[in-house]
Each structure stands twice: as structure tokens, then as C-alpha cells.
Amino acid sequence: MSTSQFSQFYRCTGILATSFAVLLCPTCPKLCHCTSSTPGRGDQLPHTDLTVTAEEHVDEERYYQLYPGHIPTSPLQKALLSAGSAFMALYNPYRHDMVAVLGETTGSSALRSLRDKMKHDPEGYQILQERPRIRLSTLDVTGLRGLPDGTFGREYVRFLDSNRVSPDTRMPVKFVDDEELAYVIQRYREVHDLMHTLLGMPTNMLGEVVVKWFEAVQTGLPMCILGAVFGPVRLSARKLQILTTELVPWAVQSGRNASCVLNFYYENRWEQTVESLREEIGILHPPAICV
Amino acid sequence: MGFPLAGPEASRDSETRSASAKFTPLPKMAASIGAVTSRALHSRRYHRKLLSGGRGLFSGARRLVAEGETHFGFQNVSETEKGEKVYHVFESVAKKYDIMNDSMSLGIHRLWKDILLHQMNPYPGTQLLDVAGGTGDIAFRFINYVRSQWEHQIKQKLKSHQNLSWEEISKSYQEEELKLPGGSQVVVCDINKEMLKVGKQKAQHLGYSEGLSWVVGNAEELPFNDNKFDVYTIAFGIRNVTHIDQALQEAYRVLKPGGRFLCLEFSQVNNPLISRLYDLYSFQVIPVLGEIIAGDWKSYQYLVESIRRFPAQDEFKAMVEDAGFLKVEYRNLTSGIVAIHSGFKL
């Protein structure tokens, strides 16, 4: 395109866009003359006072970050992030960070219902209070490896070794604007690998889709639902057939039958056998298929 | 230091409104529309972020920076810290730098760079130093321009001297293949090795090899002798330099007498409506693009904040004059989103 054509085009879009911008302007600092009227959690900030000192400014910044790694975002940014990350996750399935971002930006109501489920269960409530994290530094991997075969801990470490994954590669939470919900989604991510173990699914595309179906029924997170519905797009016909006839019905049934998987303090259950843990949660026995 | 100390007392006409001169009262209508829509569109918490972001802009603009301190976007950091942080930013964005430029500016950055080259109008034989030239955009355009100028010159010569002897004709073709016409040379200097790496790969891929060299160097302390280059350019790099005045002095030093200084940089928008749209786009869309395409929100947040912190056109013009350049002018592109400052060492 020549320069003159480009500048003409640019001018036209500029005119359209500026009229649009008059309505959406408030996000830029210079127009913000409005105050937040209702006081809430820590809303001690004064009205736009131009004589605020630098210390107050730094405090506000530090204060506004609700947890380390938190990036506050506006609703417009969340919408753009959801759309963009959904597209990018489908376009490039290796972008796991995009799946994470999609989960964070779309999951607010599902996370709230998950948090409530956890609050109403004694073990879940304990997890919310103690906030355990599953990390290599806190896991005693050699101890777990020494456990007898068939125990949850042994099978989990076997899963990590054979699939060559590590619990430390979970993305930290960035876009959830509530500190407790940020923990809930972090716990969900860390429990994901444990789900693989309990469901007996490897980390290939087929296994991931099955786990997504289970999680979609369990948690209701839009990201899981999208992953469950669009994930199979990249599977071969044979795998798709196995998926639809055997694996998905089992996963959905297990998801419905099982109680909330976030309500189990897995760190205290390493010695329990996988079978008994499955029974306790309510996961049905996996079909005898090599995935 | 390049720190916008502008406030209401700064004399500004309507054409050169800067980001920090927002104390001028906006029309009441727009403000109330803004108030209503902002309450409707944004949650309370995001309001606080706006206030803090806005206040950061104001407070940063109003309070004087402490000794040895400077700005990194909207944060205040020590001077050594700034250098390191900027290095890390460009180290992490290097691989996706070009694709991000295209998506953030919708390809318009190519036009800006083309306009810079047209303003430079180099002839075959020019020695160019491109500082903060990283991925080589300006250098490659320079080579293309010089080559096309040379071809044009040959055509003119052949047109007017139709009976040129075969020895002269073959000599002129030979010169074209072995090196850049007229002995033109471009040196790309950047402080960041990753950016230079990406630039070298691009050069190989696109087939540029002659007359091009890649040097690691700091704009505040260039590893070149005095009076060496005909043209010095710095495109979208000078706002990342910790001591802008030192960079300008170095530019003066390495240029030959008669040499030209050209700086292409983001600047302050002079049109209030476009400025509003630009701010909306910068703060809302660009970090999101950074997260989605490059997986890096913070670097692109730094980018848009550093643009706001850079001095306005007239202030930067004064800084260029302070370094000793004469006939300093600036030219706004896209309503001042970008400006080209030009000065001569005479």
C-alpha cells in the first residue's frame, strides 16, 4: 500500500475511532476526576489530590498489588485477554501460559462457587486456611518414591517421572483480582497433576482432553469447558473414536459422581492407596484402554 | 536528564500539549461523560489503579527526583538499576521485537522509519552510525536507499553519456556487486547482545552483508573516535538511555563537522482527541498484546510508561541544542505520536 493511501485509510479510521474513544475514554489518567464512592476493603485512598507525595504513591502501588505477581486489569483488558488467549491457545497449543491466562480471566464466577464449596467442607476449609503449595522444594520426592507400589504418593512420582513433568512449571496467577480466589486457582493448577494420577491419564493430547472433561464437570471453569470442547479438534480419527465412546462418558460420570476434588488434603494422603482414594472421592474405575 | 518537570507554569501553546500539562480544565461535558462511563465500565478496584496510575503521572511530574535516582516507566529507581532493568526488558523481548512492533503499531512503524530515511536522504558514500539499532531496521533501509540512489545515478549517467566506453560501464557494475555503492558504510551499535543477535540473523536471512557492521556499545560512551560519521541516528532508543544528555554529547563527538543528528522517538500528541484514543490504546491494548504475543506483560507496560516519561518535542529540542547541535528542528508524525528531531554539527 502506498504512503498516501495508507495515511488516508489511517485518517478515516482515526475519525471513527475518536468518536468511539469519547465514550470509552476514562481509562487514561488525565480524565479520571471521579472518585470511588463506596468504601470497601482497604479503600482509604483520597480523592484525586494533586499534591500527593511520592511515598503515598509507592504505598498505593504496593497496596494495590493484592499478591506477588498480581497485575491489576480493567474489564476491557480482561475481555481482550480472554479473546486473545483463547485464539492463541488454539493456534499454538504449546502456549500453556495462554491456557492459564484464559482460565484466570474467565473464571471469576466458577472460582467463587469453588471457594464456597471449599468453605463448606471441613477439609476444604482447612486447605483454605493453611494454603499448602505443591512444589518440588516442599515435596519429599525420594520419600515418596520409597513408598509401596499402588500408593498415591508412589504413583504420583511415577507419573512425574514417566511424563517428565515437574510441579514447578505451573504458571503463577496474575489476573485474578481477589487474593483468596487467586489461591483457589493456584491450588486447582497444582491439583491438576494429581488428577492425572488418579484418572490414570498421561500428558499427551488425548489424556489432557480427558482430564479437561473431568475438570469441566467438576469445576465449571470456562477454560476447562473450552479446552474439553475444542481440544479434540487436533486428534486423529481413531483417538477421537476412543474418546467419544469410552473415555468421555467415563470422565463425565466420574466428575458428576465425585465430590469436589479441591476438598482433599492430598499432602496428608500420600500413603493411601490410589484405589481407596478413588473410592473416597467418587472417581469410577478407569476403562482398560491404553492411552 | 530528560525528566518532564512541566507543570501549569510551562508555556505551551495548543499545538504542543504534553501528557503532563493535563491541569488545563477539560470541558465539563466530557468530564461528566467520562465520569458516568467510567463508573459504569470499571470496577472500584480498577478506579484505584487509575487514580494511582494517574497520580503516579502527576506526582512523578511534580516532585523532583532524588540524587542518583531516575525513572523506569512510572517507578523511581536508581540509575544503575535502570540500566540493568532496561537491559533485561530488551533481552526478553528481542526475539519477538519485530512482530510486536508490527502488531502494536499496526505496521505503521515501517512508514515512520521510511520517512526518517527520506529525511536523511543519504547519498552513496555516507557513513551512518545507527545507535540502539538492535534488529537493524534503519540499517537495512539505509542500504536499500543507497543502492537505489546509486542505480538512479547510473541510469542518469548512462542516459546522458550514451557513448560510455565498455570499460567504464563494467567498472560501475563491478563496484555495485563487491561493496556498497560509493563506499557507504553502516555501523549498528546496541548495548544489548540479544538484539544484535536477532539483527545479525535477520541480515543473513535477508541477504545484507556488505558495508554492515555490528558493534556492542553504550550510547553514553560510544566506542568510536571523534569526527567519524556523516549521520547519527537513534530510532526508538533514546528514551531508554539513563543519561540522555550524555548520549547527545557522544553523538556530537562522533559526528564529522557537517554531520547530521537524527532522532526518531515517541513524543507528545498535540491533538486532544487523538491523545485520548492513544492513551486508551497504549494502556489498555498494548500490554495485553505483549502478554498474548510475547508472554510478557511487564515489558510492554514499561514501554508505554517510558513513552509518557520522555520529554516533549520542544524540551527535547532544547536538550539537543544544549549538546551543541545547530539548526535543530523537529517534525511530528501521526499527530505527534512520533517525532523526528534533526540537528547539525557545524
Automatic annotation (TrEMBL), chain A:
<comment type="similarity">
    <text>Belongs to the COQ4 family.</text>
</comment>
<dbReference type="Pfam" id="PF05019">
    <property type="entry name" value="Coq4"/>
</dbReference>
<feature type="binding site">
    <location>
        <position position="193"/>
    </location>
    <ligand>
        <name>Zn(2+)</name>
    </ligand>
</feature>
<feature type="binding site">
    <location>
        <position position="196"/>
    </location>
    <ligand>
        <name>Zn(2+)</name>
    </ligand>
</feature>
<dbReference type="GO" id="GO:0120539">
    <property type="term" value="F:4-hydroxy-3-methoxy-5-polyprenylbenzoate decarboxylase activity"/>
</dbReference>
<dbReference type="GO" id="GO:0008270">
    <property type="term" value="F:zinc ion binding"/>
</dbReference>
<keyword id="KW-0999">Mitochondrion inner membrane</keyword>
<comment type="subunit">
    <text>Component of a multi-subunit COQ enzyme complex, composed of at least COQ3, COQ4, COQ5, COQ6, COQ7 and COQ9.</text>
</comment>
<keyword id="KW-0472">Membrane</keyword>
<feature type="binding site">
    <location>
        <position position="192"/>
    </location>
    <ligand>
        <name>Zn(2+)</name>
    </ligand>
</feature>
<dbReference type="GO" id="GO:0110142">
    <property type="term" value="C:ubiquinone biosynthesis complex"/>
</dbReference>
<dbReference type="InterPro" id="IPR007715">
    <property type="entry name" value="Coq4"/>
</dbReference>
<keyword id="KW-0831">Ubiquinone biosynthesis</keyword>
<comment type="function">
    <text>Lyase that catalyzes the C1-decarboxylation of 4-hydroxy-3-methoxy-5-(all-trans-polyprenyl)benzoic acid into 2-methoxy-6-(all-trans-polyprenyl)phenol during ubiquinone biosynthesis.</text>
</comment>
<feature type="binding site">
    <location>
        <position position="208"/>
    </location>
    <ligand>
        <name>Zn(2+)</name>
    </ligand>
</feature>
<keyword id="KW-0479">Metal-binding</keyword>
<dbReference type="GO" id="GO:0031314">
    <property type="term" value="C:extrinsic component of mitochondrial inner membrane"/>
</dbReference>
<keyword id="KW-0862">Zinc</keyword>
<keyword id="KW-0496">Mitochondrion</keyword>
<comment type="pathway">
    <text>Cofactor biosynthesis; ubiquinone biosynthesis.</text>
</comment>
<protein>
    <recommendedName>
        <fullName>Ubiquinone biosynthesis protein COQ4 homolog, mitochondrial</fullName>
        <ecNumber>4.1.1.130</ecNumber>
    </recommendedName>
</protein>
<dbReference type="InterPro" id="IPR027540">
    <property type="entry name" value="Coq4_euk"/>
</dbReference>
TrEMBL record, chain B:
<keyword id="KW-0999">Mitochondrion inner membrane</keyword>
<keyword id="KW-0496">Mitochondrion</keyword>
<feature type="region of interest" description="Disordered">
    <location>
        <begin position="1"/>
        <end position="21"/>
    </location>
</feature>
<dbReference type="GO" id="GO:0031314">
    <property type="term" value="C:extrinsic component of mitochondrial inner membrane"/>
</dbReference>
<dbReference type="InterPro" id="IPR029063">
    <property type="entry name" value="SAM-dependent_MTases_sf"/>
</dbReference>
<feature type="binding site">
    <location>
        <begin position="218"/>
        <end position="219"/>
    </location>
    <ligand>
        <name>S-adenosyl-L-methionine</name>
    </ligand>
</feature>
<dbReference type="Pfam" id="PF01209">
    <property type="entry name" value="Ubie_methyltran"/>
</dbReference>
<dbReference type="GO" id="GO:0110142">
    <property type="term" value="C:ubiquinone biosynthesis complex"/>
</dbReference>
<dbReference type="GO" id="GO:0005759">
    <property type="term" value="C:mitochondrial matrix"/>
</dbReference>
<dbReference type="InterPro" id="IPR023576">
    <property type="entry name" value="UbiE/COQ5_MeTrFase_CS"/>
</dbReference>
<comment type="pathway">
    <text>Cofactor biosynthesis; ubiquinone biosynthesis.</text>
</comment>
<keyword id="KW-0489">Methyltransferase</keyword>
<comment type="function">
    <text>Methyltransferase required for the conversion of 2-decaprenyl-6-methoxy-1,4-benzoquinol (DDMQH2) to 2-decaprenyl-3-methyl-6-methoxy-1,4-benzoquinol (DMQH2).</text>
</comment>
<keyword id="KW-0831">Ubiquinone biosynthesis</keyword>
<protein>
    <recommendedName>
        <fullName>2-methoxy-6-polyprenyl-1,4-benzoquinol methylase, mitochondrial</fullName>
        <ecNumber>2.1.1.201</ecNumber>
    </recommendedName>
</protein>
<keyword id="KW-0472">Membrane</keyword>
<dbReference type="GO" id="GO:0032259">
    <property type="term" value="P:methylation"/>
</dbReference>
<comment type="subunit">
    <text>Component of a multi-subunit COQ enzyme complex, composed of at least COQ3, COQ4, COQ5, COQ6, COQ7 and COQ9. Interacts with PYURF; the interaction is direct, stabilizes COQ5 protein and associates PYURF with COQ enzyme complex.</text>
</comment>
<keyword id="KW-0949">S-adenosyl-L-methionine</keyword>
<dbReference type="InterPro" id="IPR004033">
    <property type="entry name" value="UbiE/COQ5_MeTrFase"/>
</dbReference>
<dbReference type="GO" id="GO:0008425">
    <property type="term" value="F:2-methoxy-6-polyprenyl-1,4-benzoquinol methyltransferase activity"/>
</dbReference>
<feature type="binding site">
    <location>
        <position position="190"/>
    </location>
    <ligand>
        <name>S-adenosyl-L-methionine</name>
    </ligand>
</feature>
